[in-house]
Amino acid sequence: EVQLVESGGGFVQAGGSLRLSCAASGFDFDDYAIGWFRQAPGKEREGVSCMDPRDSSTYYGASVQGRFTMSVNKVNNTVYLQMNNLKPEDTARYYCASSEGTYYSPVYYRQLLLHGMRYAGEGTLVTVSS
To answer: CB under 8 Å to 52, separation ≥6 — which residues?
Structure first.
């Protein structure tokens, strides 16, 4: 059973940083794409980042490119999202996600970023004040 448990959310001032963590279990990182999504109140879900864990190729949403960095530790089965220079518009619940299937195709991961992934955790709330 795929399980994803996020942590690390909180309250931060604009310009600050946070690192989210996701404890993953029930699947092999070499067989599953992983990613982060977010959803702000009253808004649609937005793809934040998506990764092929085999080579750590990572794709980011335009609104976070250059500020957020996704990484994975295969030893402790943890996925991270380092968020720097946070803005009030980054306020949202952040979800760790995964989908079965890994391919050497940027199009595949960009499609996952756009359309979502099969499994997701309960999320962790990030609030950025101005």
So the answer is: 33, 58, 102, 103, 104, 109
List beta partners, residue 12.
128
Contact criterion met (CB below 8 Å) for 30 and 104: no
**Apex CA 121: angle with CA 106 and CA 94, to 5°?**
70
Closest CA to 115 of 94, 99, 92, 91: 99
Average pLDDT over residues 14-31: 96
Q: Tell me the pLDDT tens digit for each residue of 48-102.
A: 999 999 999 999 999 999 999 999 999 999 999 999 999 999 999 999 999 998 8
DSSP one-letter string for 72-96: EETTTTEEEEEE-S--GGG-EEEEE
Closest CA to 96 of 67, 75, 118: 118
What is the distance between the alpha carbons of residues 60 and 53, in angstroms, rounded to a whole number? Answer: 14
